[in-house]
Amino acid sequence: MSLAHRIIPCLDTDGERVVKGVNFVNLRDAGDPAALAARYNIEGADELVVLDIAASRDHRPTFLETIRRVAAELAIPLTAGGGVANVDDGRAILRAGADKLTVNTAAIRNPALLTALAAEFGSQAVVLAIDAKRVGNRWEAFVRGGSVPTGMDAVVWARHGVECGAGEILITSMDKDGTRSGFDCPLTAAISRAVSIPVIASGGADTPETFLEVFREGSADAALAASIFHDSIQGLGALKRYLGENGIAVRQTG
Amino acid sequence: MKIALVEYGAGNLPSVERALSHIGVESLRASTSQALVDCDALILPGVGHFGALMRSLGERALVAPLREAVSRGTPLLGICLGLQAMFAKSDEAPGDAGLALFPQKVSALPPADRLPHMGWNQLRRSRPSRLLEGVPEDAYFYFAHSYAALDAGEAGVAFCDHCTSFVAVLERKNVFATQFHPEKSGPVGAQILSNFVRQSGAKG
Fold first, then answer.
1. d(C-alpha B8, C-alpha B64), whole Å
2. What domains are there in chain A, each with its CATH number?
3. A25-73 pLDDT, tens per residue?
4. Nearest to A172 by CA among A53, A89, A68
5. pTM for the model
6. 3-state secondary structure at position B175
7. Is A46 a catalytic residue?
8. B161/A contact by beta carbon, under 8 A
9. Would an 8 Å CB–CB cutoff place A254 in contact with chain B?
10. Which class is domain B3-203?
11. What ipTM was estimated for this complex?
């Protein structure tokens, strides 16, 4: 008996529609979030993440409606985020039906936001999202959808984020994102070693072997992917069977 | 049959309502002491902080009415923080008294594994359970917490191991509770809610 490793499909949206792109650019439409959510709920996803990657203030009501539509399809946990800048933003996302919220840019600018969110909603509801890129012999945290470097070491930031109140870390490798060349195991392992909270690996998902790698070598607690699931390149059931056969504790479904 | 969700200004009521609706059960929200009298079964959902929950119940003058409902025999299901609220006190808020349906306390999980305990885990059953009827032994349930009751005497019917052994399901007469979230636990979670509703029907 042990905690299962989670497989988490991610819906990157422009607030309303699922979009996808490589390395955060060249976005194209990939479907209706509620329809995809319904499919993943049945196919055995352990959790779902829905992000507003545009995160413009004007579209916020649209995104909240998207969260409501997605939550209505799920009997599994939902994490939502994108542009969360204060406690009120967080409350709106949780009220719309999310169980957890992600925070990224605003937390780097003001780490006390993590403390405020954790005090209000509990650490278990606060996911610190970090977009990291290899720079020299370390990883640097980027903000604003990966467009702005912060000069901050991603591992150091992760550790500080935990001290401030984050309950989980979603680490996205910008070098791997959209490439389908495997997760960034060294980055994930470095983050995982640095913190005592669960770590979700993101960026580079491809074959079942890449998931096995990030659980074994990256010490990830969960792995997130988007396009391989949206495009039906990889089925959730087959992926989990493969992981189970290779000694990874997963929740088998169906 | 009227199933009421205790509304105290927090908690994740819509997801519990949706999960009940999916199994064909309509629920209403109870935020006054009278509403707790006017129902056949009660659900106390909960996310967040033990102290905040107890203070919210206190501000709405729902603590004594909840205890009275239990004494009258109204079936009550506590979920996550709702389970923890049933105990006398919690490490999370040492100054705030719980509902004290159980004399033991809620403890911070020792940091032997990653915390919060977040994700899907299995149960170890120690006594026959009405909530777990028809649920496969190896089923996974969704947990998200850092505090737990390590002991509930005879009422502890299933346990989970993460950092240490803690109470995952408790049952005593008309009082039921789960540390995991049945409303987030897929088909097996729906089975738990069905079992509670069926127990409530048998009772009322």
1. 14
2. 6-245 (3.20.20.70)
3. 667 787 899 999 999 999 999 999 999 988 777 778 899 999 999 999 9
4. A53
5. 0.96
6. strand
7. no
8. yes
9. no
10. alpha beta
11. 0.95
